[in-house]
Amino acid sequence: MYKENSIAVVVPAYNEEGYVGDVIDTIPSFVDVAYVVDDGSTDDTWEEIVTHAEAVNAERTPEADGYDDLVVPIQHDENRGVGGALKTGYLRALEDEVDITAVLGGDGQMNPAELAKYLDPIAEGDADYAKGNRFMKREDLEAMPGFRLVGNSVLSYLTKFASGYWQTMDPQNGYTAISYEALASADIENMYEYYGYCNDLLVKLNVENLRVADVACSAEYLYDDEWKSHIDYGEYVPRVSGMLLRNYFWRLKQKYLLRDFHPLAAFYVLGTVVSMVASAGLVGSGVMHDGDGPSGLGSWAIGLLLGTAFLLVGVVLDRDDNAPLELQVYDDTYDTDVPIEASE
User: N or C: which end of the chain has fewer CB within 10 A?
Assistant: First the structure.
């Protein structure tokens, strides 16, 4: 229990032999249940999960009623992606009616000692979802490899358009916590299962007008000599960008056309369509060297400027409408009076 809330963690693991066992062993003492999901690993990850789960369960019992074991091993027959593993854990947390569910990566890249600061905004009633943000402090930005910084920045701004959370950065950060109410409200069953699951979830949360806290996240334990990633960025960026474009139109339809009406939807749609048509016209005119007539480069450039202006108006309206749903949390925002030591 943490501040009178039952706590779960979901630990997705794919080929994390040699790492996931340490994650299980260092689960903070206030966690009531951990759903450790082997996502179709081809190494000995499952055996490691079961072995460490049995050892931890023999030593510790959950504080909250209703949980027989602290660690619950779950195995996928085939790899579904990290979003698919999290979906499995989230659905179990919903079934078990856990108050707050957080995420700890099976690769050991998320410091379990920092878990409490993601729980605080939710436990205090200030947010429905909390996520890490490595952009809030200069030293954390400097610790991020250059290629990750550029890619993360691009996807951050694409996610702003898609989700409406304009003050939020670092949407790829997997260190998160979510309330039971938010899990029940968001469309978790249809959550994206590839690496862009966290971007997709933000869109689903915004449609339900749920509050998001950006929590300053240290990166000093990341990117060391043993740091590794399963992401193929040549595949990741196009796939996630396409998903965000679809979500962008879906959010506008759901939140600002079907459930209610807001003029920002008209500015966004008109700006998007005009900008895309004008951009295509510019490219076509350049290829055909047709810059003299009314359909030449000058006309298409004016169209692009007009489309951009419509988009900017939409952004301003969108940012103002969603500002009450965003919160930024630095390390000293909350006083943590609950011990966070991990089991030995």
Answer: C
pLDDT digits (tens, 9 = 90+) for 51-102: 999 999 998 877 766 788 899 999 999 999 999 999 999 999 999 999 999 9
What lies within 8 Å, CB to CB, of 228 at 6+ separation is: 107
Structure tokens given for 131: 């996520």
Non-local CB neighbours of 229 within 8 Å, separated by 6+ positions: none
Residues with Cβ within 8 Å of residue 15, at least 6 apart in sequence: 41, 42, 43, 45, 230
Amino acid at 215: V
Cβ-contact 285, 226 below 8 angstroms = no
The neighbour count for residue 183, using CB atoms within 10 Å, is 20
Q: Are 250 and 203 in contact (CB under 8 A)?
A: yes
Contact 38, 45 (CB under 8 A): yes
Quick one: how far is CA 17 from the chain centroid?
Answer: 24
Integer Cα distance of 109 and 306 in angstroms: 45
- CA-atom Rg of the chain in angstroms: 22
